[in-house]
Amino acid sequence: xxxxxxxxxxxxxxxxxxxxxxxxxxxxxxxxxxxxxxxxxxxxxxxxxxxxxxxxxxxxxxxxxxxxxxxxxxxxxxxxxxxxxxxxxxxxxxxxxxxxxxxxxxxxxxxxxxxxxxxxxxxxxxxxxxxxxxxxxxxxxxxxxxxxxxxxxxxxxxxxxxxxxxxxxxxxxxxxxxxxxxxxxxxxxxxxxxxxxxxxxxxxxxxxxxxxxxxxxxxxxxxxxxxxxxxxxxxxxxxxxxxxxxxxxxxxxxxxxxxxxxxxxxxxxxxxxxxxxxxxxxxxxxxxxxxxxxxxxxxxxxxxxxxxxxxxxxxxx
Length: 317
Prior knowledge:
Layout: E1 2-6, E2 25-29, H1 38-42, E3 47-50, H2 57-61, E4 68-71, H3 81-86, E5 90-92, H4 101-114, H5 117-125, H6 128-132, E6 149-153, H7 157-168, E7 172-175, H8 190-196, E8 199-202, H9 216-220, E9 227-230, H10 239-248, E10 253-256, H11 269-273, E11 279-281, H12 290-308
Parallel strand pairs: 1-2, 1-3, 3-4, 4-5, 6-7, 6-8, 8-9, 9-10, 10-11
Helix pairs in contact: 4-7
């Protein structure tokens, strides 16, 4: 009998169906797990399912019976994969489940910002239409996407799908080379993308190379005053630098679905940005369509069955 513990089951929406692996098992859900609850919640479980709970080398020392950490997400910066490998603990993630959901959210943010949807809706609610006294009013700028350059940082399944949608809108889609690397086939230099794009969208993982990838230097290069969209990871963007860039007019607006930490403190830069009419902040829900969540859980079941059968589906270690 394999014991499975889900440490933060509340990260998934009510109504989605948890996997029912075919092998004999006992499944225990914990809605959330604080650091001081980790060892007690895991107990003698062999398999730990986790979304955002941090499991590093020190935490692994307190979990001697664990054989697999199954991350119920694609990003894995919350788990120390190297430390797990050293202890012969497998680590898996989920792949490709949100290839529809996240790009949809990206363009929901792009369209809302480029059309100033929220600003106009709020103005109507405040009585501005009646005050204008005519069939329309022009308080906030609107621009078309057709002909605008969409710069993508990251060319995996999500970035590639965003590119497809951008081309359907008639946008000039370009991908960035790694920062400091020369342009290559299919990619333009990183700094050139920053300088020439009207919309920039992030689709890269958070790691040592991409932490604070966009900070004061990078924002100062943005000559086209782009919209910035981040549905990847919060640590990729220096949030204080983004606030300064908006103040300076280097960036026209921002759509932010991810922050660091999550949730952000009430007095943080991101919460100040959320009060601006040209910034939309959503609570890391770009991935969270019900369809995507169910696909995630169905794949999780396959990953667990592969592990028990001796396979290596979606292994990171």
